[in-house]
From TrEMBL:
Native organism: Cytobacillus firmus (Bacillus firmus)
Domain of life: Bacteria
Gene3D superfamilies on file: Metal-dependent hydrolases (3.20.20.140)
Family from the record: Belongs to the metallo-dependent hydrolases superfamily. Adenosine and AMP deaminases family. Adenosine deaminase subfamily.
Keywords per UniProt: Hydrolase, Metal-binding, Nucleotide metabolism, Zinc
Active-site residues per Swiss-Prot or TrEMBL entry: E200 (proton donor)
UniProt protein name: Adenosine deaminase
Cofactor needs: Zn(2+)
Molecular function GO terms recorded: 2'-deoxyadenosine deaminase activity; adenosine deaminase activity; zinc ion binding
Higher taxonomy: Bacteria, Bacillati, Bacillota, Bacilli, Bacillales
């Protein structure tokens, strides 16, 4: 299968982990932002996490440089537009992009202005390319509960206007869900969909708690349900969809190598899995590359791919009109 030309859906992609290196250099030069280097290849070395990365925390260090140039409305809009442009050029038909608004307030931008700028970039890309999208607002688990309430409240007015869901991300500690029960409950009350990063770093029980305590409809990664029978069963029984990211999972050492990844075992056992990039720049990847990895490692058939594609459509937070359009693309496969 030539995944470069096949229709694709991406549900788990971080804005700040997917900034073009040349864009970082261009903005930094124009705004006088200090970088370790202004050479594209050297900056790529700073941005891309190696496959032999030691942990999730080491992987997350790669996000500090992009954040330096994501502190104005103009830059956020540009970076959002370029991400959707890059995805469209590899035939991604729909993408949900997530980001943490509170990381972009360093120079005084309001949360509302930050969210609006990212939506505007997405909308411009939708007009120019054959792609549709939505935005997921991430709350940082390393920040306070109050900060999560702030994101939920200030993102509320964008629901149905580009924003569809709330997320919890960053370093994963055991039992983190208990801390965020109230803000996520409020988000659900307001109409946000819920996807939670959990089970990425060896704590399968976090997935169980994300589903039971936070009402997670999707789980970011979820690799370690393999080591927690209760989490495995609830994901399977409730058909909670896993947003899996093979390259990222090797980099963060959720798995040691691609052949160890549980995505295909999960798929064959009736768990709903999807394929995603996580971070296009930090993981030096594309949706086509991720699909190739799964295909090469596990002999994924055309029927397997169609099944996973439909999982992605059904699990997306798009409206029914867009879902109908996305399903029709399968007819061409």
């Amino acid at each position: 299968m030539n995944f470069a030309i096949m229709p694709k859906i991406e549900l788990h992609c971080h804005l700040d982990g997917s900034v073009r290196p040349e864009t970082i250099i261009d903005i930094a030069k124009r705004e006088g932002v200090s970088l370790p280097s202004f050479d594209k290849e050297k900056i790529k070395e700073e941005l891309i996490a190696p496959l032999d990365c030691e942990s999730l925390d080491e992987y997350l260090k790669r996000f500090s440089i992009p954040n330096l140039v994501m502190q104005s409305k103009k830059n956020l809009k540009r970076i959002s537009f370029e991400l959707f442009e890059d995805a469209a050029k590899e035939n991604v038909k729909y993408m949900e992009v997530r980001f943490a608004p509170l990381l972009h307030t360093r120079k005084g931008l309001s949360v509302a202005a930050i969210i609006q700028s990212v939506i505007e970039g997405m909308r411009e890309a939708e007009e120019e390319f054959d792609i549709k999208g939505n935005i997921i607002l991430s709350c940082m688990r390393t920040m306070s509960v109050e900060s999560a309430f702030e994101v939920v409240e200030k993102g509320k007015k964008f629901l149905g206007k580009g924003v569809v869901a709330i997320d919890l991300c960053a370093s994963e500690e055991e039992g983190f869900c208990g801390k965020f029960i109230e803000p996520i409950a409020l988000a659900r009350e307001y109409g946000y969909k819920v996807t939670i990063h959990a089970g990425e770093t060896g704590i399968g029980k976090n997935v169980l708690e994300a589903v039971e305590w936070l009402g997670a409809e999707r789980i970011g990664h979820g690799v370690f349900i393999k080591d927690c029978e209760e989490a495995y069963q609830i994901v399977k029984e409730k058909q909670v969809v896993l947003e899996m990211c093979p390259t990222s999972n090797v980099q963060t050492k959720a798995v040691n190598q691609f052949s160890d990844h549980p995505i295909y075992v999960f798929h064959k056992d009736g768990i709903k899995v999807t394929v995603n990039t996580d971070n296009r720049t930090v993981s030096d990847t594309t949706m086509a590359k991720e699909c190739d990895i799964v295909s090469n490692e596990f002999a994924m058939s055309a029927e397997d791919y169609k099944h996973i594609y439909m999982n992605s459509v059904d699990a997306s937070f798009a409206n029914e009109k867009i879902k109908g359009i996305l399903r029709k693309y399968l007819l061409d496969i």
